[in-house]
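Hey Z.,

So I finally got round to the zinc ion thing we talked about over coffee. Here's the setup:
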Amino acid sequence: MSIRTKYENFRVISPDSVLEGMKIYEEDGKILAVTGEDLPAEKTVDGKGAYLSAGWIDMHTHGAGGADFLDGTPEAFRTAALTHRKYGTTTVIPTTTSVDREGILRTAAAYEAVRNDPDLPSMPGLHLEGPYLASSQKGAQEDRFIRPFDEEETDAILASSDRILRWTAAPELPGAERFARVCRERGVLPCIGHSDADFAECERAFRAGFTHVTHLYSCMSSVHRVNAYRVAGVLEAAYYLDGMTVELIADGCHLPPELLRFAVKFKGRENTALVTDSMRAAGAGDGPSVLGAKDNGLPVVVERGVAWLTDRSAFAGSVATADRLLRTVTGAGISTVDAVYMMTAVPARILGLRDRGTLEPGLRADFTVFGEDFRVKKTVVAGRIAGSCAETAG
Ligand SMILES: [Zn+2]
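And the result:
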């Protein structure tokens, strides 16, 4: 028999405002109703004035809690996913960095072992970041794994899993249009990232299906000169092309507040998702760490709230969790409602996850409950509650 749960005394964050006096009813893991009316329920959760929003969705993370998804074990997936859940994320999109084929396949196999675990946040699919990238924009991706498009390998990876949701590549490389086509045929979103493409190449890529830009500003071309003539790059195309969506690493280190405001103003909140792009040290403290797989990744160091290459020449990934993204973005002057929208409805739409992202009847009962300053009190994943908040029977 199904149990109906009522959530009351919450400040509910909708796409447009903060609603008081609304009750949310959950049954069988889904939202039954969002209403001011009293309906019968077997169980009540009293929010005592806390905020409740649709569950937060992180569409780009490599790990947390000391584990990287590329470690390639179910245990690493559990550790990283549960750490993110502790900080409010109810949907995690595990992401790989450039690695050999075996590394990708091992990670996809570990994912299969845990993807239906009801104790974990929802993990509806994977994001492959690389290995078909521009060496000149590699950032912390490793040259030894970066390679040109490889049709046979692409097909083998796509055939190995029907759960790849997005794949980041450099569209100026030969074979990009074919890559975009086979991705689209399999429901995979091709994304532009780690790219030196010029504006015209981005327009072609957009028409071919590359409709999302990975970590705007990081590892991409912008206006530069070629033989005295100025050329526009990925950054300008990301702003110019209507329908091109973007994501921001809003950890407070990768982008200053002015650029967060700039991006949200000129792309609009509709086209802007917040991502952690976190590496394994998210939620795990400062000190030496490894980017990528534990056994063959890149040594990095975590200091001042971000991961660095060991020579401190560049960032090597964020250590943010979703709550920090929201604090950073609202601290930059963006409203709570818009910030939450970019952490919920927008990533759901970009990824084609129609069963989540807002608080509407029929959608998954994925909620994040938090206090002032986005301090997370509780998460709910398909109706299953984790965390501490007053619950009463009756
Ligand atoms: Zn990444």
